[in-house]
């Protein structure tokens, strides 16, 4: 990917992502795992595994100003996803996973295949790395929803973290959880069992559903 897209750095582009989403702007930098795009206001760090296509568009079609400063999460070497996430720890960011909802807050920890995220709305969340489409750092000293520091704790959760997403979900067995922001009724319930990447979930009415862990983008406790 890096070799294929590097010649387009500085050009206006539109990137189509999985889930029929698009990001348009000036292509600022290209790595093996991340593209940086300036959309006229913010720098967007796009995970390459979700890119379906990239096309160059005219500057007139884009109709945005060129950047006057560099990206906030600068990297001295390869643009790798984990390095970007590490640079973003403690920085207020917007992340996008799926659907039409973005999540605002900050990264607190980065594990093998997931990271923990604190959101003023959803509190502590566990988010799969493979489902992160993009992240956008806040510019300046803004905070989510203009909240004060007392509403954005530095250490939001005392729950110990497992090295992998699968084991972390196992640790939540017996607890009420919300998967994928609760966008579907069968994504809210009590975890009964996690085995072989299948989650046995008890819904509000007591029925049992079996969820494929590979399709779990996020989990948080209500």
From TrEMBL:
Name of the protein in its database record: DUF2642 domain-containing protein
Organism: [Bacillus] enclensis
